[in-house]
Task: inverse folding
């Protein structure tokens, strides 16, 4: 059973751009401080945050911001230059869950989004753990 109606997208049901902006703003400071993830991210996360906002908006059925700017997301191919290990994917998910807590995202919208992100995170893995 879905938490959103046929007349709206998951993007609308979670609160649209406002919620995604809050989530991204809560998430990336955690990434910057994380010893496992920070090495594969740029020091300046400004562009990364913008891209994540665009991707999540489109991923959840909102405006096609990412494709409009960068063409098809092709996320796995775009992440191939970076060693994304199973541990890094799990840490990314852990920090996203913490960011969801920080902004008070709960209930069915959170569950829906998090379950979709589990699929994405595991799809990005391209390197085994050491």
Result:
């Amino acid at each position: 059973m879905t938490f959103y109606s046929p007349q709206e997208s998951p993007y609308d049901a979670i609160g649209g751009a406002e919620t995604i902006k809050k989530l991204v703003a809560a998430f990336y400071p955690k990434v910057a401080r994380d010893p496992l993830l920070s090495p594969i991210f740029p020091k300046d996360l400004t562009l990364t945050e913008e891209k994540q906002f665009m991707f999540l908006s489109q991923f959840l059925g909102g405006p096609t911001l990412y494709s409009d700017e960068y063409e098809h997301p092709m996320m796995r191919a775009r992440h191939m230059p970076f060693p994304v290990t199973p541990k890094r994917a799990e840490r990314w998910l852990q920090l996203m869950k913490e960011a969801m807590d920080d902004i008070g995202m709960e209930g069915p919208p959170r569950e829906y989004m998090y379950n979709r992100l589990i699929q994405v995170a595991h799809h990005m893995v391209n390197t085994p753990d050491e």
The mean pLDDT is 94. The two ends are 39 Å apart (CA to CA). Residues 29 and 45 are 9 Å apart (CA to CA).
